[in-house]
Amino acid sequence: MQCMRTSSPTVPAGRRPRRATGHLWAAGLCTLPAAVLLALVAVEWGPLLALDRTVATGLHESARESPGFTQANRVLTDWVWDPWTMRLALLLAVLALLLSRRGGGRTTALWLVVTLLIGSVLQQGLKFLVDRPRPRWREPVDSAHYAAFPSGHAMTAAFVCVLLLWLAHRAGVRGALMRAAAAAAAVSVAGVGFTRVYLGVHWPSDVVGGWLLGAATASAAVAAHHRYGAQRTETLEPPGTAGE
Fold first, then answer.
1. For the purposes of burial, counting CB atoms within 10 Å of the CB of 106, is it exposed (0-12), middle (13-18) or buried (19 or more)?
2. What are the backbone dihedrals phi and psi of residue 38, each rounded to the nearest 5 degrees, phi first?
3. Is the pLDDT of residue 31 over 80?
4. Cα–Cα separations (whole angstroms), residue 184 to 8, 36, 44, 110, 231
5. Going by C-beta distance under 8 Å and a sequence separation of 6 or more, which residues neighbour residue 133?
6. Alpha carbon distance 128, 121 (integer Å)
7. Buried b / exposed e across 142-178, counting CB within 10 Å, b at 16+?
8. Rounded to an integer, what distance in angstroms lies between the CA atom of residue 158 and that of residue 219?
9. CA–CA separation, 5 vs 226, rounded Å?
10. Among 36, 124, 153, 206, which one has the highest count of C-beta atoms within 10 angstroms of its own C-beta?
11. Statement: residue 51 has pLDDT above 70
12. Radius of gyration of the chain (CA)
């Protein structure tokens, strides 16, 4: 998937601008459809609203008729793929970087924390500005707070998974292990989006918008790290330690 680009663990100085440009392109390819979708949601475009209603209604009816499967989706969305669970996974990566002795670990850890804060502020800011109502049902199977667009669960999952995959690739993870990590990330991103619509707390376009915005934010942050973070590492780290 174009949005989920990663970089190599060691990048020569001359190739950093190209790496940054590649991630900026990925961010742009995610941002453009996200902006179009946001505009359509904001103006309440009829065909989009009708599609949202059709898909959400069908899944909601299925959720009402399958209480066991519905409960499993609630466990997944409230615990396994909850935004705070995803953020904790990223903070564990921050801790690992702080404890490592690799050059630039502290700089990358600080960058991750700042990136996480920016992503959270962007998410809540968009919810406030768009202020889209959530679906309402006569017999709801779950509940949620705050505005609907974008889905915070979907945006956080995409955002965190892109960053974790990039960190894994950068750390030298390859082969079957990297494929397994990518598969787990894809299942998490797709799965959490399904649970939000299935449980009737989001419209499908909320989820798609969250996916696009999360991947775009992470890709832009990675581009910034390639452009400026590596230079800062070379400035701060002693000679011979910048092997990151």
1. middle
2. -60, -45
3. yes
4. 20, 29, 34, 26, 32
5. 147, 148
6. 11
7. bebeebbbbbbbbbbbbbbbbbbbbbbbbeebeeeee
8. 10
9. 13
10. 206
11. yes
12. 19
Instruction: Tell me the two tokens of residue 101.
Output: 């002795």
The pLDDT value given to residue 16: 60
Question: Residue holding tokens 């199977």?
Answer: 141
Cis peptide preceding 150, ω within 30 of 0: yes
DSSP string, 92-126: HHHHHHHH--STTHHHHHHHHHHHHHHHHHHHHHH
Helix, strand and coil content of the chain, in percent to the nearest 5, comes to 75, 0, 25
User: Which residue is associated with the tokens 């707390």?
Assistant: 201
Task: For tokens 């598969």, name the residue.
Answer: 183
What's the CA gap between 85 and 81, in Å, rounded?
6
pLDDT for res 227: 84
Asked if 183 and 151 touch (Cβ cutoff 8 Å), the reply is no
Here the tokens at position 234 are 């070379």
Q: Give the largest Cα separation in the chain, rounded.
A: 65
Higher-confidence residue of 238 and 217: namely 217
